[in-house]
Structures are given as structure tokens and as C-alpha cells.
Write a structure and sequence with these properties.
105 residues, 0% strand, mainly alpha
Length: 105
């Protein structure tokens, strides 16, 4: 997922600063708000809904389950979310390459 996001950002970016903006305003907040450093069970109900809508949460939750055998969310639902997000990002990257969006010939 992160490699696809980086590829899309790299094609979209005009300057290196645009790449940094994607990292600073999309990747970093999603990773910090995904339960990396805390359990999502401790969040208020409104923020818990946001966490469960975050695909980064399911990647980290699956990784945590692989290490300690405990998951905060459903593993099957998480796999569906991550695969769907990867398919969507793959399609966007494919369309960018196919149409030649901001690419030189």
C-alpha cells in the first residue's frame, strides 16, 4: 500500500516538496492515528470510528496479531479493507501510467 501511494505521489508531484507534503499530511497522520502506539479500545467512540475507517489501522493490527496474537479489530474485515485499498491504489497508478499523466515520453 505504501509503495503504491509513493508511486502515485511521485507521479503527481512536481517538486520534492510535494512528495514531502504527501508524507507529512497523509502518511504520517494515518500511521499515528492507527493505533501504532496505543490500543484503539482506549479511544472515545467518535475517534474509534475514524480508526476503524483507517486502512493503516488494519495493516498495523494484522502485524500486531502476527507478533502477540491479539488484534483490536476483525482480521477478516481488515484483510478485505487492505486488499480493497491496494486494488484501488493499483488502479489509480495503472491509469496514471496508461494515460501518461505528468509523464514525459
Amino acid at each position: 500500500m505504501l509503495s503504491l501511494l509513493g508511486m502515485i505521489a511521485g507521479i503527481w508531484a512536481d517538486k520534492f516538496d510535494h512528495m514531502a507534503a504527501v508524507t507529512n499530511f497523509i502518511v504520517t497522520p494515518l500511521s499515528f492515528l492507527s493505533g501504532t502506539f496505543y490500543s484503539v479500545d482506549r479511544l472515545p467512540a467518535s475517534l474509534k470510528l475514524f480508526a476503524f475507517a483507517n486502512p493503516f489501522f488494519y495493516m498495523i493490527d494484522g502485524f500486531r496479531y502476527g507478533f502477540i496474537g491479539h488484534a483490536d479489530g476483525s482480521l477478516v474485515y481488515g484483510a478485505i479493507i487492505v486488499v480493497t485499498a491496494n486494488l484501488a491504489l493499483s488502479y489509480i497508478a495503472y491509469r496514471m501510467f496508461r494515460t501518461g499523466y505528468k509523464l514525459k515520453a
